[in-house]
Amino acid sequence: MDTIASLFSFITTPVSWVIVQFHSVYGAMFGPDTGWAWGLSIVSLVILIRICLIPLFVKQIKSTRAMQTLQPEMKKIQERYKNDKQRQSEEMMKLYKETGTNPLSSCLPILAQSPFFFALYHVLNSIATGDTIGVINQSLLQSAQKAHIVGAPLAAKFTDSASKVEALGASLTDVRVVTAIMIVLMSASQFFTQRQLMTKNVDTTVKTPFMQQQKMLMYVFPVMFAVFGINFPVGVLVYWLTTNVWTMGQQMYVIHNNPTPGSKAQASYLDRLTKHVAQHDKVSKRRDRVIVKAIVAKGRDRNEFERKFINGLSKAGLAAQPDGTVVKSDAAAAAQAEDGTPTIAGGTPKRQQPKRQSKSQRQHGGAKVAGETDEPKTSLTKSDEPEDAKPAPAAKKGGAKPAGGTRSKAQSGQRKGPQRPKSPSKK
């Protein structure tokens, strides 16, 4: 580790200068020789570095998503040229070039902060050995050696001997307890960060070897941190624990606000966005408009969560626009017609399905109209004369009409109206 750290000695001067500047601020607040002053200086160094690496982090997100999109094509190339590794590599590079992706982009944040990590390790190791380095002079060196974090010196390691730890003014038990707790927290934060990435922010519709590799790394990285952590000084453990917590929080923010398409995080995000837009009739935030714009542009290529989002807006009487905004839909704005009839898309009233009639109703000429009773209706113009006083109608040839002058009712199962005469049967 010392040999690797010495390779980055060119950056130790800038790193030590930043630490000293932060120490002058925190030293005035907590005292120059306290662990708070030196510990917070290291934490502030991490925050400053990670802020500078935000553009690389954004590029990492885009590259990771692009790689997930390319997984089906990469799998086809691997199967097609499984016996020709050279041709397989050429086709892979051609695919990367056509799509503008780079597999190494997902590792950019880690690679970019590695020089700072090893430079800090080199600075703290020099403090442990009593050597001045960078802008840390003798007085600052003595102050840093006196600084303890919960009883553990900044430059002490888990593997240090009891005599070396006593020379730094601490006990071996305190150093090992503090470093063990910090190593466990460091490994746990790394595991949780990778786990939330795999369980929430991965496209579940794509099953590729890339996902299996990510699952494997979820368990490998914490073990690596635990193994190498016993050789890190307490100050480096503070640095690495802080950067892990920063990464975890940064990733939680991205998963919550800009999830991967097709992931569980996207389903939760679009549910929240649907409720917000339905309540306010607009897309308030710029990043939400960018996502809505991308969903509209996909057209028929939308996944199930995106289709559900568009349908949810339609039910709320809204329609997503190509620029990411929403407007009230003319078809869905009228929930009912003027007469209260429910409407469907397009504003046309729904066709009411007739009620099914029973067999007896069909035989007697259909169901009764609502409000109609079995009592005989009386005409307003009908005379009140008794029926016997009325002159009987003249009888026609071939038989008399039924009494009362009323038309005989059709027999059960017989058609109403004039009947067609039967043809004489042939004998």
Write up what this structure looks like.
The protein has 427 residues and is mostly helical. Helix content is 58%, strand content 2%. The strands form two sheets. The chain has a two-stranded antiparallel ribbon. Helix 6 packs antiparallel against helix 11. The termini are far apart. About 16% of the residues have low confidence.
- Largest sheet data: 2 strands, antiparallel
Described by the principal axes of the CA atoms, the overall outline is: elongated
Query: Structural class from helices and strands?
Result: mainly alpha
Low confidence ranges: 332-350, 366-413
Tell me the number of strands. 4
Q: Strands across the major sheet, in which order? A: 1-2
Mean pLDDT: 76
Helices and strands, in order, run as: HHHHHHHEEHHHHHHHEEHH
How large, in whole angstroms, is the Cα Rg? 42 Å
Helix content: 55-70%
Strand content: under 5%
Number of helical runs? 16
